[in-house]
Amino acid sequence: MRHGKHRYSLGRVKEHREALMANLAAALFRHGRIETTLAKAKALRPFAEKLITMAKKAHLSEDSAQKLHYRRLVIARIGDEDAAAILFNDRAAEFAKRNGGYSRIYKLDQRVGDAAKMAIVELIAGDDAGYSKSRKRKSAKAKKSGSAKVKEVAKKAPDASPVEATPLAIVDVGVPVPGAATQE
What we know:
mainly alpha, CATH 3.90.1030.10, 2 domains, three-stranded antiparallel sheet, extended
């Protein structure tokens, strides 16, 4: 069965779709950045990144027969020897130390004529660190263990009030707290 196999059909038959991806990938390797529709950009990314991986493997390989094999595979997929030469000679060395994520998609405004969602696909510089990762939130287990510590402290000191058992201290900064008695 072919459940879950429907990806990026783009309203085209297989041959037309392969030619479209080949032309978009060749333009991307030549220019480094292209503007297209968002759907085409999302379909192009895995196609182009597989070709870049082949070029990277050829660059890192010591065997000349292996290098030629990867070059011929890429030429067979994109059909443009000039774009393949640019990829293998110029761009492959940039990505030698990068583990995937060779392209980036930026969303743009809609196209005026038909309101299609537009995007820019660009090749990332090999030394680009990317976006800094945000601080991770505490997981549910960590949150539960934090509340368990408060309960454990409360069990150890049964005569203490619940306010004293909390790990946070309340600091008086001169702002009246509603419902609290003032000391004047």
